[in-house]
Specification:
about 0% strand, mainly alpha, about 60% helix
């Protein structure tokens, strides 16, 4: 998925938001997707012995890290 990727039908989930706000929602969801995908890849590699030691993920908390990344940069 590229940075220009879009989630479809955000307007139907957030009918009161304007296009600027919908773009922000799209950016947050895209970053959350990247965080989740990366952590699942880490867990996959750990389960197959590709990573030594331990792996600590925050599965289920992707939106917090995505929003932190959006609003602190």
């Amino acid at each position: 998925m590229t940075e220009t990727a879009r989630f479809n039908n955000l307007e139907s989930y957030f009918p009161s938001l304007d296009s600027t706000d919908l773009e922000l929602v799209n950016r947050i969801l895209l970053k959350a997707f990247y965080v989740r995908f990366s952590e699942e890849k880490l867990l996959w590699a750990y389960a197959r012995g590709k990573i030594r030691g331990t792996v600590h993920t925050c599965l289920g908390q992707e939106l917090q890290s995505a929003m932190l990344g959006i609003f602190t940069n």
